[in-house]
Specification:
The chain is α/β, with parallel strands linked by helices. The chain has two domains: 364 residues, Glycosidases (TIM Barrel, Alpha-Beta Barrel), CATH 3.20.20.80; 179 residues, Jelly Rolls, CATH 2.60.120. 36% of the residues lie in helices and 22% in strands. The strands form four sheets. It has an eight-stranded parallel β-barrel with strand order 1-2-3-4-5-6-7-8, surrounded by six helices. Helix 7 packs parallel to helix 8 and helix 14 packs parallel to helix 16. The radius of gyration is 25 Å and the shape is globular.
């Protein structure tokens, strides 16, 4: 065989693989859009970039009343339905078929509260509205519905000041949230049985009331075996975090669902029909609001964004989506503005930013770095059931479960009840230690998160975790002595021991700490050279919380930041 023929065969094979990769790619949906004549006349241009849009009507209450109406007795007060019906017809004809009708829960709206959660009339009102949402989505030609539960997040916690527990219990609030989740999903699916359902911000292991509401929605879909599936629209991937985390992020819900749900029917439904759908934020550099986010040349920013989207497209099962506060589905020209009223996007460097983003959307190239491809293979092995969630976490350099001791007191307020001897002492789960609110014992904490994020408020269900500390313990296993790098971040203070060596001490949190995501993009602010002995080593982390968010980010890697071969983790004996 001649060199020319061999090269032609290799080239043809590469082209074939590239085409297969493009055909198998998840659908790309843009958040968000409003009705516009551009979609009618330029739908073919849109189809080169996106597979669908989130068309939002506002909140599920007033937004639905004004834009969708509540039937013949309460027609809509806008022409939104007429305009969107025309848009969707042209978009579908061009192949843009994954459009979602988006509704949200308002930050300052009445729900959730004791009055709204415990009211039968309010539950009936919610069901009526979501029935209209399902009916409208089906009749207008939407692929499904997006439900954004993000904004009332503070009132999803059972220790919020709004809950006085005068005449009701926490358990009654949670059961009421479940009942309302069941009511709205039954109403929606009664009208649109085949609907795809997105939930935003895509965190199922969330605060108690939000979690109860969302999981009840999932249970209803599982009972019906609803074909559209529930899709968790992850916002965690908005930032240009490290490539290893980008590979892992599309399976975070798959690992947390078995912790949250014991019903085998619901678990089976999740595995067959449901997915994590990562979101990207193409204009993060100028829209984030983070005052210290690095502003740099767009070419530099987009080089990372291109790598990110290649990774997410390689690991996402069904959907990827993008968010922007600006309409980024067109490149502004004076002609477009005159004809369709599409103004120039109000961002710095728009003439470079929008075409750069569109070029990334048109890119159908798979990730080229062989180390990233190896991690993608680990994801594929997990999907096929060849490895479990605990093993997947280890393959990404982080423990999937810990022994946890707490709640302990904040050592800077009261050092008496911090159980400092437990760091090097017994890990017997029967041994008592004296904590902030009483006796505590070492307990297993399954934190199946391959990003390396350990959400400590989740360990205590977001309940009374201010001014507290905990100890976490895991066993590191390695077949040989290793020089490694500990990637680490903490909110608030954190210290780390490997065997009897203190490798990082940052318990006293600085007055202006950076939190768990430094500069709105780095999960790991600290990178510490460490030595891991051959065999077994005890890894102990102490974390202190002053108030609010609480957790650590931890990963063991080689000098280049990639997980170490052969390193595993287990609960200490």
């Amino acid at each position: 065989m001649s060199k020319h023929i061999a090269w032609a065969m290799i080239t043809a094979l590469a082209c074939c693989l590239s085409r297969c990769h493009a055909e198998e790619m998840p659908k790309m949906i843009a958040y968000s859009a409003r009705p516009n004549a551009y979609f009618n006349e330029r739908a073919d241009d849109v189809a080169e970039l996106y597979d669908g849009f989130f068309f939002t009507v506002g909140n599920w209450d007033e937004g639905v009343i004004s834009n969708l109406g509540l039937g013949a007795d309460s027609p809509p007060t806008t022409d939104w339905k007429d305009r969107i019906r025309e848009n969707l017809s042209h978009l579908r004809e061009a192949g843009v078929r994954e459009n979602l009708l988006g509704v949200s829960f308002g930050q300052s709206a009445p729900w959730p509260s004791p009055k709204t959660l415990l009211s039968k009339a309010y539950t009936e009102k919610m069901a009526r509205h979501f029935g209209v949402i399902g009916q409208s989505a089906r009749e207008l030609g939407f692929r499904g519905v997006s439900i954004d539960v993000e904004y009332p997040y503070k009132r999803y916690e059972l220790d919020h000041e709004i809950y006085t527990y005068d005449g009701y219990t926490p358990e009654q609030l949670l059961e009421a949230a479940k009942e309302q989740g069941r009511a709205i999903m039954n109403a929606l699916l009664n009208e649109y049985p085949d609907a795809v359902v997105f939930v935003l911000p895509g965190v199922l292991w969330s605060r108690p009331i939000e979690r109860a509401f969302q999981l009840a929605m999932l249970e209803v879909m599982a009972k019906r075996d609803a074909p559209g599936g529930l899709h968790a629209g992850a916002e965690r991937s908005y930032s240009l975090i490290d490539p290893i985390a980008q590979v892992a992020i599309a399976r975070t819900a798959d690992l947390s669902v078995p912790i949250l749900i014991q019903d085998k029917r619901v678990l089976d439904y999740w595995q067959r029909r449901c997915t994590m759908a990562p979101g990207v934020w193409p204009l993060h550099m100028v829209e984030t609001g983070g005052k210290d986010y690095p502003v740099r040349p767009w070419a530099e920013e987009f080089a990372e964004l291109q790598q990110q989207l290649r990774i997410l497209r390689a690991v996402s099962k069904r959907y990827v989506w993008s968010y922007s506060g600006q309409p980024v589905w067109y490149a502004h020209t004076s002609e477009l503005e005159e004809k369709y009223g599409l103004a120039r996007q109000a961002i710095d460097g728009v003439d470079e930013a929008i075409p750069g983003w569109h070029a990334i959307l048109r890119d159908r190239t798979a990730p080229k770095d062989m180390r990233i491809r190896k991690l993608i293979q680990e994801i594929e092995a997990f999907d096929k059931g060849k490895i479990d969630g605990k093993t997947l976490c280890a393959r990404f350099g982080t423990p999937g479960e810990w022994l946890l001791l707490g709640l302990l007191s904040n050592p800077f307020l009261d050092s008496t009840f911090t159980a400092t001897k437990a760091i090097h002492g017994s890990l017997n789960r029967q041994d008592p230690f004296y904590g902030r609110d009483g006796v505590v014992h070492w307990q297993p904490f399954r934190n199946r998160n391959p990003l390396g994020e350990v959400h400590l408020r989740a360990a205590f269900d977001w309940f009374k975790t201010d001014d507290a500390s905990v100890h976490l313990a895991s066993t590191i296993h390695t077949p040989r002595k290793l020089d490694a790098t500990l990637w680490l971040n903490g909110d608030d203070g954190v210290s780390v021991w490997i065997d009897n060596t203190l490798v990082f001490d940052h318990l006293k949190y600085p007055e202006r700490g950076h939190g768990l995501q430094y500069r709105d993009r780095y999960l790991f602010e600290n990178k510490i050279p460490v030595s891991i002995p051959k065999g077994e080593s005890r890894l102990v982390v102490t974390s202190v919380n002053l108030w609010g968010g609480w957790g650590i980010n931890l990963r063991l890697t080689d000098k280049d930041g990639f997980p170490l071969d052969g390193v595993t983790f287990s609960l200490p004996r």
